[in-house]
Specification:
three-stranded antiparallel beta sheet; globular; binds S-adenosylmethionine; 43% helix; single chain; alpha/beta; 11 helices; 286 residues; Rossmann fold; seven-stranded mixed beta sheet; 2 domains
Length: 286
Amino acid sequence: MIVTSIQNPDLDDDSLVENVELELLLQAVYLKYGYDFREYSRAHIKRRVLHYIANKRLPNISSLQHELLIEKKCFDELLQELSINVTEMFRGPGFYKSIREKVAGLLKTYPYIKIWHAGCSTGEEVYSMAILLKEEGLYDRTQIYATDFNPRVVKSAREATFPLKYIKEYTSNYQKSGGQESFSDYYRATNSSVIFDRSLTKNMVFAEHNLVTDRVFAEVNMIISRNVLIYFNRHLQNKVLSLFDESLSTGGFLGLGNKETISFSDIAPKYKIIDAREKIYKKSHE
Ligand SMILES: C[S@@+](CC[C@H](N)C(=O)[O-])C[C@H]1O[C@@H](n2cnc3c(N)ncnc32)[C@H](O)[C@@H]1O
């Protein structure tokens, strides 16, 4: 099948060749390593691949393809380049404020809560949620699953250790999110890092999971997946939203954050809006 973006008649010959090479590279990555980037936003993938080959001083995308087919280490590096892991604690504090004000009260009626953070990166978002749940008296009856397709960030997330240099910003985010306690009570500082309290990690399970190629992870009452769908094209977003829908029990919550939406998707009719800005939804029926 020839992809329409490759056929674009406005493209000059070099760009056309580059697009063909990129298509073949993504196919090769999928066939050799099982990671499927073929439906990620093409502009994003192209930017990152060109950045990578410039850094490695490779002449073109085809030479990268050859290199990564024979050298697993090369693929591991490319994966770091393609998975944007930027995150922070209480990122977008308004989101957590809304969870506190509009969702926590409803969760209190549940005897047991399961939450899935899909695309959790190095875990800052997961520890933020654990703090919020603790303050709302919910943590002890919650199981948090946190997944990402990048093994390196999953390993780092498990360690509960973050650079000290960001802690001022995280403390400010925490306060803006409605946090009333002393943030420093949740961690122990060393020279260059902070280590979060064991009482926060006890109900967390970290695992590798690929939203594009893996199936339902678990049946849960809340899914948080912010700043992940933005890297996918519309067709893939729709597919992943259906996976979320399959994983969510009726009455459960889906939190996507202010950059994403379900409005275009197949699942939209089943969901009520809880917060239109922070894109928090409640699944109203099967
Ligand atoms: C920008 S980070 C967002 C982290 C966090 N959710 C936040 O909002 O701060 C995006 C994460 O999505 C992960 N990701 C990208 N594609 C994925 C996929 N197919 N399956 C699982 N995780 C994926 C990346 O590895 C990265 O850690």
